[in-house]
Amino acid sequence: MAMGKILGWSLLGLVGLNPQEPAPFQIAVTVNLVVLHVIVRDQNGKVPTDLRRQDFEVYEDGVRQTIRNFQHEDLPVTVGLVIDHSGSMRSKLTKVTAAARSFVQSSSPADQMFVVNFNEKVTLGLPRNLPFTNRPELLANAISGTRAEGQTALYDAIIEGLERVNEGESEKKVLIVISDGADNVSSHRLQDVSRLVEKSNALLYTIGVFDPDDEDRNPGVLRRLAQISGGEAFFPGELHDVVAVCENIARDIRNQYAIGYSSASTKVQPGAHRSIRVTARTKEHGKLTVRTRAGYLAP
Questions:
Q1: What would the pLDDT profile of 206-229 be if each residue is shown by its tens digit?
Q2: Pairing between β-strand 203-208 and β-strand 232-234 as defined by DSSP bridges
Q3: Which of 13, 121, 128, 272: disulfide with 31, CB 3.0–4.6 Å?
Q4: 12 HSE (CA, 13 A, CB side)
């Protein structure tokens, strides 16, 4: 089976699942094929683009796995911009909107994007008859059209983003969450969100924007959710640095490796956590730093 066909579904297989009716939040493709989106950097922080299948090793629960599929292509992405509009973000939204516009301009015209705005309520930024777009001005308006006021329902917003990103046609799915990390009014709990992130194939990139004396800051939550998904958390020292962070994320997304393997685990209880570790090394680049999701839940 070609890698393009495999990546056309989600990530971990479910016996009897109709591929035309994918269940929400499933990271599944075939009955036992696991597909990982992998970011690699060398000791200088650069992304090597010439790696081969044999340069990687994949371990599940400490047991080395056989890599069945390998791909390194710039594929279209479905991206959700999840933007905090609580009162603490009022002075920051102009820079955040500029950063989102920069991200879109650094992305591919083939990408699908949407906006989730949140304070104590969660709303979609784009009109209901326009679920996705790649036009920077429409996405910027979708963010700036909501006032910054009220409290913060971060967890509810991320769950809404996971639901929406799953509706996208692109094989790769990403959420970019810009917030101070606090949550004080969500109907869901952190453990609910963590579990859904673990089950989803979406990468989460989180950007914490807060002042040093901000009482609402919670960088640990943003770091934890990004790490579970295989994404990355950023905490720019200055608000104007958010633009550069978004541009870096756009480049990150375009330079991923996709690795597929058939899990050798056969006696794991349904719903049990399976840990994943990926390493890479070449003579040309030496030891490389690899980032991907920390694990998944057995179907």
A1: 999 987 777 767 899 999 999 999
A2: parallel
A3: 13
A4: 20
The rounded mean pLDDT for the chain is 87
Class of residue 57 by CB neighbours under 10 A (exposed 0-12, middle 13-18, buried 19+): middle
Q: Are 155 and 192 in contact (CB under 8 A)?
A: yes
Whether the Cβ atoms of residue 201 and residue 297 lie closer than 8 Å to each other: no
Return the structure tokens found at 145.
């059209």
pTM: 0.86
Question: Hey, how many other C-beta atoms are within 10 angstroms of the C-beta on 187?
Answer: 10
Residue 148 CA to residue 94 CA, distance in Å, equals 11
How many Å apart are CA 149 and CA 59, to the nearest integer?
46
> Distance between CA 297 and CA 265 in Å, rounded?
12
Instruction: Please give the backbone phi and psi of residue 179, each rounded to the nearest 5 degrees, phi first.
Output: -165, 170
pLDDT at 22 over 50: no
3-state secondary structure the chain: CCHHHHHCCCECCCCCCCCCCCCCCCECCCCCEEEEEEEEECCCCCCCCCCCHHHEEEEECCEEECEEEEECCCCCEEEEEEEECCHHHCCCHHHHHHHHHHHHHCCCCCCEEEEEEECCCEEECCCCCCCCECCHHHHHHHHHCCCCCCCCCHHHHHHHHHHHHCCCCCCEEEEEEEECCCCCCCCCCHHHHHHHHHHCCCEEEEEECCCCCCCCCCHHHHHHHHHHHCCEEECCCCHHHHHHHHHHHHHHHHCCEEEEEECCCCCCCCCCEEEEEEEEEECCCEECEEECCCEEECC
User: What are 80-107's pLDDT values in tens digits?
Assistant: 999 999 998 999 999 999 999 999 999 9
